[in-house]
Specification:
The structure is a single chain. By secondary structure, the chain is of the alpha/beta class. It has one domain: 4-Layer Sandwich (Nitrilase/N-carbamoyl-D-aminoacid amidohydrolase), CATH 3.60.110.10. It contains 9 helices and 15 strands. The chain has a 15-stranded mixed β-sheet that branches. The longest helix has 18 residues. The chain is globular and about 60 Å long.
Length: 305
């Protein structure tokens, strides 16, 4: 049963970034860009900002064409920037008194493998992370990124949050575990290079919101980066998805940006609406997962017609 004590006691304004990938001149360019974006969101009363998958990879442009034009060399080079990257996001979360999901970063582990890692920062400066669990063909076959092995839920002042990075949201099991552990809000940083890829992630977001009766926030990279071997084309739009039932939009879309347009998508999330729909909705998707599990074990009968 959903632990209501882990819901916030008031509505929460969230902001999903449609993050424009750019060629950076130097670190100060990146820092000014990030500071400006977070300040803009904070000025709108936002308590949680979400940046997309692999937004960090524009940092490869700081190392020259011999690096940003090589898939493996760019992974190695950006490791030198990881401490400053983490420190900057932590400082911005503390400065503005909000929660901040940083653009995911390919972090090199002690054994030399890489994880696609999304760091979450609190207003007090604490740090947590969720590694991506399912690798796309590009990540696995060309970039050699390894899958994570832990499913996490973050207990915060705005309730229990969870992260499902891009391809992860296309699978229900891990997200379901996060919801059963108390998450009322799912954050989905994404990076897709084609319309079909964006639509797969969008459909996954809406499916997870429907079946778990939770809010889902998607943040994508946008724009063209022909200089990059990893994030050369970025298609998508930010959105906040909801259950499809009484008290929510009929199409399950609370807020949505414009395709491939840089900027923020804002929405006010009401935790009481989640409690209400789970108790008095037309359907009880969240509650009926128990029956779903039973159905998975039913025998299959082949019928010849």
């Amino acid at each position: 049963m959903f632990p209501e004590a882990r819901l916030p006691d008031a509505p929460v304004r969230v902001a999903a970034c449609q993050y424009p990938v750019e060629f950076l001149g130097d670190w100060s360019h990146f820092e000014a860009k990030l500071r400006g974006l977070v300040s803009e969101a904070a000025n709108q009363g936002t308590r949680l900002v979400v940046f997309p998958e692999y937004a960090s990879m524009e940092l490869a442009s700081l190392f020259g064409p011999e690096v940003y034009g090589d898939l493996q060399r760019q992974l190695e080079a950006v490791q030198a920037l990881l401490p400053d990257y983490r420190a900057l996001h932590r400082a911005l979360a503390m400065e503005h008194g909000l929660y901040l999901l940083a653009g995911s970063f390919p972090v090199r582990e002690a054994d030399g493998s890489y994880r696609n890692r999304a760091y979450l920062y609190s207003p007090e400066g604490s740090e947590g992370f969720q590694d991506k669990l399912h690798m796309t063909r590009f990540e696995q076959e060309h970039w050699h990124i390894s899958p994570g092995h832990e499913v996490k839920v973050f207990d915060t002042h705005i309730g229990a949050l969870a992260v499902a990075t891009c391809y992860d949201v296309e699978f229900p099991q891990a997200v379901r575990r996060q919801v059963e552990a108390g998450a009322w809000l799912l954050l989905v940083p994404s990076c897709t290079d084609r319309e079909a890829g964006y639509q797969r992630v969008r459909i996954g977001c809406q499916a997870r919101a429907l079946e778990n009766q939770v809010y889902v926030v998607q943040s994508p990279t946008v724009g063209e980066a022909p200089w990059s071997e990893s994030i050369d084309s970025n298609v998508g739009l930010g959105a906040v998805y909801t259950p499809v039932d009484i008290g929510f939009p009929d199409n399950g879309i609370l807020a949505q940006g414009r395709t491939d347009e840089a900027g923020w998508v804002f929405a006010d999330l009401d935790p009481r609406a989640i409690t209400r729909v789970r108790r008095k909705g037309q359907v009880f998707n969240h509650r009926d997962w128990a029956r779903h599990r039973e159905a998975a074990d039913l025998p299959i009968e082949q019928v010849v017609l």
